[in-house]
Recover the amino acids of this structure.
């Protein structure tokens, strides 16, 4: 990956071929989005989200690796500037990530800040994030990365626009952070967490989204998974309030369901920073050339983006936010989520090519889950059994 300069020289020149592909009006709309006096408070909107995804997943950005990654960093920087956001890194929008084995390329995180207005809270931070890198071009084949993770970056930029254009100012400072090098072991977020521009202890809440435009296995259509509330259970009511009335089902899960940290929440989780991780899960187009912009579920992406924006807006003005708790809280909603997912997977055995062994594991887990949900409580031993079964299914079916 090529290094991006702090202030791109001639950064608009690469937009010319993009303009030919999308039309001048399309690119102009991306770089000069104007909200025309809407009665409702600003919030992420589908037309803007869709334009961002189409640009970020376009061939001109080369799967957002190498030269395409540099162009993407410049594009995000230009949007931060257009919104009037302050640079996050000592007067610069970019944080250079030095190469370190096994990563040989120089990377660049791109961050900006909307300063809080409350003298008591302005030095407390909420971070909204998404990684912008993807797999690039391999063997002459483009991997566009529309869901992974143009969808998350579109949410990030639309949340930034919405908060900037809101009438009220946040009490806490809100950071908008686009990570590089997630696909090579979370290296961008690991570097940021080890080299933050402010004390890591001053982060009240870290939110990240990775793949929020499809559905798990291509079959769990209304589900969006949320991890992290096991350490900040007091935020669950906010999530359900923001989800109310939306065609979404919140899938509350503990992050320990995934044996490894699968996205940029990992370096913050290990430092006990309160976090929320949003994803719709792996799908048949995951890490495939078919992960294209025209195949994304834009209504779902819009609903999830608005939900995240709502949580961020509340957190930015709250008197207090819950601190990290080492006493992990696994609610009954987690068992309901796993039960409902396994039911959907079981109902789609043929399409998902679920074999007899996998079906046996699912059936056993469902028996346990049905009893747990009916009783209304789950014991530590029952949860351990359920999580183990869910891991087996997720690791072998996708």
């Amino acid at each position: 990956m090529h290094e991006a300069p702090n202030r791109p020289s001639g950064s608009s020149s690469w937009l010319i071929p993009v303009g030919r592909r999308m039309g001048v009006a399309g690119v102009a709309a991306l770089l000069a989005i104007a909200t025309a006096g809407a009665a409702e408070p600003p919030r992420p909107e589908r037309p803007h989200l869709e334009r961002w995804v189409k640009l970020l997943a376009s061939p001109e950005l080369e799967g957002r690796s190498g030269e395409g990654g540099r162009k993407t960093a410049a594009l995000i920087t230009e949007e931060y500037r257009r919104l009037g956001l302050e640079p996050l890194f000592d007067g610069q929008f970019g944080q250079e990530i030095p190469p370190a084995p096994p990563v040989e390329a120089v990377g660049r995180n791109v961050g900006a800040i909307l300063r809080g207005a409350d003298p008591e809270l302005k030095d407390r931070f909420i971070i909204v994030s998404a990684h912008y890198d993807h797999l690039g071009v391999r063997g002459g084949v483009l991997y566009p990365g529309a869901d992974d993770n143009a969808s998350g970056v579109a949410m990030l930029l639309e949340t930034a626009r919405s908060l900037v254009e809101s009438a009220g100012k946040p009490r806490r400072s809100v950071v908008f952070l686009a990570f590089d090098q997630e696909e090579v072991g979370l290296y961008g977020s690991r570097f940021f967490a080890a080299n933050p521009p402010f004390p890591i202890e001053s982060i009240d809440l870290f939110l990240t989204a990775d793949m929020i435009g499809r559905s798990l296995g291509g079959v769990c259509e209304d589900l969006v998974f949320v991890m992290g509330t096991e350490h900040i259970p007091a935020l669950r009511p906010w999530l359900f309030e923001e989800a109310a009335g939306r065609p979404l089902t919140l899938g509350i899960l503990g992050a320990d369901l995934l044996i490894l940290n699968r996205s940029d929440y990992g370096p913050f989780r290990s430092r006990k920073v309160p976090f929320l991780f949003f994803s719709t899960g792996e799908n048949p187009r995951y890490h495939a050339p078919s992960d294209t912009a025209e195949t994304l579920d834009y209504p779902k992406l819009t609903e999830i983006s608005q939900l995240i924006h709502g949580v961020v807006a509340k957190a930015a003005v709250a008197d207090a936010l819950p601190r990290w708790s080492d006493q992990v809280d696994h609610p009954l909603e987690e068992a309901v989520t796993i039960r409902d997912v396994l039911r959907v997977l079981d109902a789609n055995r043929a399409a998902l090519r679920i074999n007899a062994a996998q079906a046996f594991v699912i059936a056993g887990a469902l028996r346990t889950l049905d009893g747990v949900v009916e009783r209304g409580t789950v014991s530590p031993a029952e949860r351990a059994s359920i999580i183990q079964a869910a891991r087996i299914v997720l690791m072998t079916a996708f």
